[in-house]
Design a protein that fits this description.
By secondary structure, the protein is an alpha/beta fold. Helix content is about 40%, strand content about 15%. The chain has ten helices and ten strands. Strand 4, helix 7 and strand 5 form a beta-alpha-beta unit. Helix 1 packs parallel to helix 10.
Amino acid sequence: MARNIIDGKKVAGIILQQIHEDVQEWVGRGNRPPKLQAILIGDDPASRTYVGAKTKACREVGIESDTVSFPDTISVRELKEEIRKFNRDDGIDGILLQLPLPGHLHPSQVIETIDHRKDVDGFHPMNVGRLAVGQPTFRSCTPAGILELFRYYSVMTKGRNAVVVGASNIVGSPMAIMLSRENNSGKATTTLCHKYTRDLTQHTIQADILIVAVGSPKLITGQMVKEGVVVIDVGINRLTDVTSKKGYRLVGDCDFDSVSEKASLITPVPGGVGPMTVAMLMKNTLLAAKKSIYPSKE
């Protein structure tokens, strides 16, 4: 890869290898292997691909996994009851509810049903609240993976201007919290931008660290960033491409060609943030099995 490209696959591979060794050590002490229960609603091809990648990673590190699929007509009541069954199953350590959900299922209604001690995605209000006040918690996997990339590539956050574009509960909001916390992976002066932000460029041009997660292809161009910026592109967008065997190509939320000319470091799409998200899910599942975050029932 080019000198300024952040290799998410490489870093994720290092983390997964360490998790594999930790799982072996855990099982070697007489414990059962950690188990992840995935829940898939409907037949969205992208969701099936994502769940497949996560269960593949489970096999690689020695974590057991199971995927249950429900039709997209399942009611809120029915889905909640299925989740409660997994909550009560002591053989399940982590519960993964693959998003997005069908329109009639509001994520917040369903996510709150998941036992926060098994919420390895880090989406439950209990875990988000603990994150906000600096308590031990399951951290959202994508922001946690980004911080691991910063650690590997020695990206300093203390005192730097960090701009997050996109205020979702999955990436943007928890990312802003992590960057602004008074700990060794935070202490940045953090700005959170969103679809209502006026004159986005006046914020992005000031960023020492720019994280973009809005799902808008090539939203950020080279003219919107300064020289030396560190860019994390979380977006994964499909653009029609008749020259590709698949008929499409994946691009991020940044115009890679123009932004990479100015960036000191930048993540590619794909191969940047995605592998790190999966790696951190594996880490959270192991933590759940070890009861590292919640030592006893609360």
